[in-house]
Amino acid sequence: MTALGAPVREAAATHPRGTPHPHRDDEDREVRQVHEVHEVHDTQDARHVLDRCRELVRPALMEAVGRSHPWVGEMAGYSFGWCEVGGAAAAGSGGKGVRQALAVLGAEAVGGPARAGVPAAVAVELVHAFSLLHDDIMDADATRRGRPAVWKAYGTGPAVLAGDALFALAVETLALQPPPAGTDAVRRLSAALGDLVRGQADDLLFTARPWSGPDRVRPHEYRAMAEGKTGALLGCAAALGAVLAGASPSMAAALDRAGRELGVAFQVADDVLGVWGDPAVTGKPVHGDLRERKKTFPVLAALDSPTAAAHRLAALLDRGGDPGEAAALAEAAGGRAAALAEAGRRVAAAEAALTEVAAQAPSAAGAVRDLRSLVGFAVRRDL
Q: I need a labelling partner for 65 at 20 to 30 A (CA). Which of 49, 175, 278, 300 fits?
């Protein structure tokens, strides 16, 4: 499967029959380029990697959560899908575990054992869970993975407290690792958290900015936001695993760069689905992001184009017009093609960074191959 194959097919499935595609040639070229990069990756391989890493990390993750206050631990367990409200065991999934897999594979990619990356995997998984608890509150999202969000199930105050506890556990997990690697790991996590907060702040501020005029959100601002909000923790995960396995600074930096590029690629591809995706596949309503008036990359790229369609789109968004018409105008203005091109460039950049890692640790070719499989899988599917 290609990294962007599913978004392309799903978007095409909902495009009105007979509508012109002025930018389709450019779009198809970008899709072919991404396909050439990822055609060797098999979805089943990526799922096997994720399963292997989850099985390795879960006992340590549960042990870390068990160090918290029992009530806080219950809320954390609920967020991971381990239990119901009240503590009864549940068989739910806490997500696909891409971040924890990146940490384990980061350790293996530099020639270390998988277990060396487990503390890094635990830390990033705790931070990710912390960010989701707080994101759901900030966005007023009432559900998460088909269940009431923690703040709906337990209350806003308790959910904030649980998120804070997960953050503290993440820092503690890395601080317990022997120096100098443990010290470096804490520093890296702190820097990534700073980037995450900046990205989240920008994302929240974007909602108040206009669709048109000099104060509108520009594509380069969105890229920076996505790298902070999504890419920073992905890059940190891979680099932390490498650091705890004794990697050189250059290898850790290359893995961090690969994760950051992957994060932007994922976010942009997800934006394509948010506008043109098939609800039967995505689980989201058609034109959902436009209905919610989210400032996503394809729409921002369309508004930045010097076309008549871009002017009509800006006017339509300013008055809160029909989402279906907005989607058609965004495509006519080149937004869809620009988004797929951007995602393709970011995937290629992630691949280039992994090539640097492979050149420095040829004996760890299997781990780098597994990382490559996750690049395609993560961009094509929900993280």
A: 49
Residues 6+ apart with CB under 8 A from 86: 74
Distance between CA atoms of residues 340 and 348, nearest Å: 12
In this structure, the number of other CB atoms found within 10 A of the CB of residue 307 comes to 16
**266, 318 Cβ separation under 8 angstroms:** no
Compute the average pLDDT of residues 5-29: 43
Is the predicted pLDDT of residue 6 greater than 50, yes or no? no
Beta-ladder partners of 148: 143
Q: CA dihedral defined by 148, 154, 155, 161, rounded to 10 degrees?
A: -120
Reduced to 3 states (helix: H, G, I; strand: E, B; else coil), residue 213 is coil
Q: Where are the alpha helices (DSSP H) in the chain?
A: 5-13, 24-38, 43-65, 70-79, 98-109, 118-139, 150-154, 156-175, 181-206, 219-226, 232-244, 249-276, 279-282, 288-291, 297-303, 308-318, 323-332, 335-360, 365-380
What is the rounded CA–CA span in Å between residue 284 and residue 272?
12
Q: Single out the residue of 14, 27, 20 nearest to residue 329, CA to CA.
A: 20
> What value does the mean pLDDT take over residues 94-103?
91
As a whole number of angstroms, the distance between CA 181 and CA 199 comes to 27
State the Cα–Cα distance between residues 284 and 226, nearest whole angstrom: 21
Q: How far apart are CA 121 and CA 104, in angstroms?
A: 6
Helix, strand or coil, per DSSP, at residue 285: coil
Is residue 382 pLDDT above 90, yes or no? Answer: no
Over residues 29-68, the pLDDT tens digits come to: 544 444 444 444 457 889 999 999 999 999 999 999 999 9
* 3-class secondary-structure state, position 318: helix
What CA–CA distance (Å, rounded) separates 224 from 345? Answer: 15
Torsion of CA 278, 280, 283, 287, to 10 degrees: 30
d(CA 364, CA 242): 12
Q: How far apart are CA 43 and CA 59, in angstroms?
A: 26
- Looking at residue 378, its pLDDT comes to 78
Instruction: Please say if the pLDDT value at position 2 is more than 70.
Output: no
